[in-house]
Amino acid sequence: MIYRFTCIVCPLGCTIEVEVDDDRVKAVRGHTCQRGKEWAIEEVTNPKRVVMSVIPVEGGRLPTVSVKTAEPVPKEKISELMRFLARLKVKAPVRPGEVVAEFDGVKIVATREA
Amino acid sequence: MYDVVVIGGGPAGMAAAIKAKELGLNVLLLDENDYLGGILPQCIHPGFGIHYFREELTGPEFAHRLKERLKELRVKVKGNARVLSIENYSDLEKVVTFVSPEGIFDVRTKTIIYAAGARERHAFEIGIVGDRVAGIYTAGEAQTLMDIYGIMPGKEIVIVGSGDVGLIMARRFALEGARVKAVIELMPYPGGLARNIMILRDFNIPLYLSHKVVEVRGRGRVKRVKVVKVDENLRETGEEFWISCDTLIISAGLIPNVKLLKEVGVEIDPATGGPVVNDRLETSVPGIFVAGNALVINDLVDYVAEQGELAAEGAKEFVENEGIGTKRWIRLKRGQNVRLLAPHYLSGERDVWIYARVSKPMENVAVEFPEIGKRIRLPVVKPAEMLRIRLRKKEIARAKGAITMEVVPL
Ligand code: SF4
Question: SUPFAM superfamilies this protein is in (chain B) (predicted)?
Answer without folding.
Answer: FAD/NAD(P)-binding domain (SSF51905)
